[in-house]
Amino acid sequence: MKAFTRLFTRLDRTTRTSLKVEALEDYFRAAPPADSAWALWVLSGARVKRSVHTGRLREWVAEAAQIPLWLLEESYDAVGDLAETLALLLPEPPKADRDPPALHQVMDDWILPLRRRSDPEKKELLQEAWDRLEPQERLVFHKLITGGFRVGVGRKLVTRALASVVGMEPAVLAHRTTGRWEPTARDFLLITSPDADLPDPGQPYPFLLANPLENGPAELPGPPECWQVEWKWDGIRGQLILRDGEVLIWSRGEELVTPTFPEVAEGARILPSGTVLDGELLAWKGEGPLPFHQLQRRLGRKRVGRKLLDEVPVTFLAYDLLEQGGEDLREKPLKERRRRLEALFSQRNLESPTKVDPPGESRAGLPLALSPLVRVESWAAAAELRGRSRELRREGLMLKDRESAYGVGRIRGPWWKWKVDPLSLDGVLIYAQRGHGRRASLFTDYTFGVWDGDDLVPVGKAYSGLSDAEIREVDRWIRGHVVDRFGPVRAVEPGLVFELAFDGIRPSSRHRSGVALRFPRMARWRRDKPPSEADTLAGVLGLLQRMERDG
């Protein structure tokens, strides 16, 4: 645990990629396989399900520290990070000689067993951990058990560092760590062995991700005919896998979502074994896609009832063929993969590749369809089509190099997403909360409202879009204009106006305004506009009605 804590500290203290890679390489060179397995697991974004309610954790730390609970809450408010607050408040561990626990012991002996223990047993187990861990180790321990472990590295960076240590190609290691594996020494040694044969009929491929096209396609090399143009769909990315009689659907977040889309899994059985499709899961009814918030009704469910299946039918739109007959096609150019994909769908009577807008069901009556190509004669024509995206319930266009292989992660060059310009409104800052990590001492999490008569009602939260200098300036303003407190939240005077960019809007019974913005972010600080000139709820509702009518 000491070594992993040192790694956490090194990663947390730098923003330089080279230093992060160096820290990861140093750790993996020295750590035993059992510890490396858990480090790879958590650093790649996997989470152990939280098994201790943070309210109970606060109570037990306050008791151990012999302070009232209100003082702990005030300390948390000052520090801004719960894991750090708890670590700082706990008394020093006993000075008696004790063996420092390894990371795998912390996970296997303390964190995993918490799920099966009663509250008194959890408290006893936590006390044992606190007595064995140093203060900085306690901080990391608390982040692991509360689900708040974030340290500024992604799967791609971790894979790159580990691949360098074990002498493997990063793409091969990325594939092996995608999907089903357990954080054990045995599995770690297998996936990091260059010569290991790891057949897994359910293993997905790492996803190829697109980069945003900021200034239009004129910056791309080659004319339009060098690029495969498709719609950018507003659904969730998925891989549909058929191997050895098993059908699996994986999300981009490496969640197995087969039970959430049973009709797609059943329909996919028409495809031959050894097939892997990359595509989009969309709520689709009649002639077009439903709004994304309808698809959200299906997400996260382990069982979908008949009523919901009827109300929110789902289609899988395939746009790439990654495996055929058990052959990995990712190194073949996109134009070849697309040709094979069209032939496969034609052979199975699923979809005509010349269709411009695929139906919710294929000609075979199944929820599988081919994502259509968009024919454009010029980039000007593409721009005109992109301008119609929102009315067609698309997010814009995808531009894919027809000669490109299917790589791993967000590679600059092969795939570009040319999204429609975001919607926007002017909102008033009404609530603020401290951030996390390096921003734990600053108010960086903001809630914005619009006018409903003489009242401001919240419509969304935003965390990004301001420079560091602007964040510090807003933080100083907030501290001088607090009018009320609700735990860590501060209500402030209506004084600051920001232009919010967002991708969509939907009805919401959870918000007092009755609406919720999708992916709101701060486009700019409207220093030129007083709060009285911010947008109104009536205007927001009118926008929602127009979007629903046009869609």
Question: How are the SSEs ordered, and which strands pair?
Answer:
Layout: H1 2-12, H2 17-30, H3 33-43, H4 54-65, H5 69-79, H6 82-89, H7 103-111, H8 119-132, H9 135-146, H10 155-166, H11 170-176, H12 185-191, E1 208-209, E2 211-212, E3 227-233, E4 236-243, E5 246-251, H13 262-267, E6 275-285, E7 288-289, H14 292-296, H15 306-311, E8 314-324, E9 327-328, H16 334-347, E10 368-370, H17 379-387, E11 394-401, E12 409-410, E13 415-419, E14 423-434, E15 443-452, E16 455-462, H18 468-479, E17 482-486, E18 489-492, E19 497-502, E20 504-507, E21 515-518, E22 521-525, H19 537-550
Parallel strand pairs: 1-12, 2-13, 8-10
Antiparallel strand pairs: 3-11, 4-5, 4-6, 6-7, 6-8, 8-9, 11-13, 14-15, 14-18, 14-19, 15-16, 17-18, 19-22, 20-21
How would you describe this structure to a colleague?
The protein is of the alpha+beta class and 551 residues long. The protein has 3 domains: 2-146, DNA ligase i, domain 1 (Orthogonal Bundle), CATH 1.10.3260.10; 208-418, DNA ligase/mRNA capping enzyme (D-amino Acid Aminotransferase, Chain A, domain 1, 2-Layer Sandwich); 423-550, Nucleic acid-binding proteins (OB fold (Dihydrolipoamide Acetyltransferase, E2P), Beta Barrel), CATH 2.40.50. The chain is 35% helix and 23% strand. It is built from 19 helices and 22 strands. Strands 4, 5, 6, 7, 8, 9 and 10 form a 7-stranded mixed beta sheet that branches. Strand 20 and strand 21 (515-518) form a beta hairpin.
- Give the CATH class of the largest domain: Alpha Beta
CATH superfamily of the largest domain: DNA ligase/mRNA capping enzyme
Tally the structural domains: 3
Beta-strand percentage range: 15-25%
Second CATH tier, the architecture of the largest domain? 2-Layer Sandwich
Work out the radius of gyration: 26 Å
Which residue ranges are poorly predicted, with pLDDT under 50 across at least 5 consecutive positions?
352-356
What is the fold-level CATH name, i.e. the topology of the largest domain?
D-amino Acid Aminotransferase, Chain A, domain 1
User: What is the number of beta strands?
Assistant: 22
Shape: globular
The helical percent reads 25-40%
Largest sheet, in brief, is: 7 strands, mixed
